[in-house]
Design goal:
Blueprint (H helix, E strand, L loop, with lengths): L15 H15 L6 E8 L5 H20 L3 E9 L10 H12 L4 E4 L9 H13 L3 E4 L4 E2 L1 E2 L2 E2 L1 H34 L14 H7 L1 H8 L4 H8 L3 H10 L3
Helix pairs in contact: 4-5, 7-8, 8-9
């Protein structure tokens, strides 16, 4: 049986043999040293409603429970209310989450499911590559998958993630196709499509309702800061900014 050399728990090594033992045990012990820091990314499609906030809370609560069971230290939680149809470049919360993980050498990012990492397979793979390049693990709770196995990328899981992303993307395309067919059939039957008359807000109505948002943007605040200051969603700030060309 291997025994720890006396200098590991007593004095500084005094000869070449002891130095070799230091190198050996340092290598052994370092394999058991793991980065136990984590952050959570949660997203729901709709914004502003009480239901959407509750959905986000459920994601966060489930991931916090998982983190506790794995003795992970959750450093920060990122929550985002934005449509899943948006590109990753438009998901400011996700971009901030990835930057934070890199800058703070976070061990793992916790996601409720794979779709939170991107809408299309190429975006998911781009996110995965970013994490691999920066030695950041990814955990997807619904699928029970994680990117790294110890300090190495789990090749099987990487392929599995790609396959699941591809299947999910194709299913979304099929759903969109069936919806388009149903919409066309309804139009042919004389069903009136679109919003009800008067339901679209005018610029004057928007200016009145979101005066604080407009004022904040004119002062040079970022979209994310404006959303926090005014208590609205990021997508709402983006919509107001676009409407008034701010």
């Amino acid at each position: 049986m291997l025994q720890f050399p006396h200098f590991l728990y007593s004095t500084v090594p005094t000869n070449f043999s002891d130095l070799l033992w230091v190198g050996f045990w340092y290598g052994v012990l370092s394999k058991f040293k793991m980065n136990k820091t984590a952050i959570i990314y949660a997203r729901v499609s709709s914004s502003g409603s009480q239901e959407s906030r509750q959905n986000t809370e459920r994601q966060v609560k489930a991931l916090l429970t998982y983190a506790q069971s794995c003795e992970l230290q959750v450093e920060r939680t990122f929550e985002e209310h934005i449509s899943g149809a948006k590109r990753n470049s438009e998901r400011l919360g996700l971009q901030e989450c990835l930057r934070y993980a890199k800058d703070n050498q976070i061990g793992v990012i916790l996601f409720s499911e794979l779709s939170r990492a991107g809408r299309q397979i190429w975006e998911v793979l781009e996110t995965v590559k970013y994490c691999v390049d920066n030695k950041i693990n990814m955990y997807f709770q619904k699928e029970g998958l994680q990117l790294f196995d110890g300090d190495k990328v789990n090749g099987v899981m990487a392929i599995y993630i790609s396959c699941l992303s591809f299947c999910a993307e194709k299913e979304r395309e099929n759903i969109a196709f069936r919806l388009a067919q149903g919409r066309q059939l309804a139009i042919e039957k004389g069903v009136k499509m679109g919003r009800k008359e008067g339901s679209i807000k005018t610029l004057d109505q928007l200016a009145t309702e979101y005066a604080a948002v407009i004022k904040s943007l004119k002062r040079g605040q970022t979209i994310r800061n404006t959303a926090k200051i005014c208590g609205v969603s990021i997508s709402t700030v983006q919509r107001v900014k676009k409407a008034f060309n701010l």
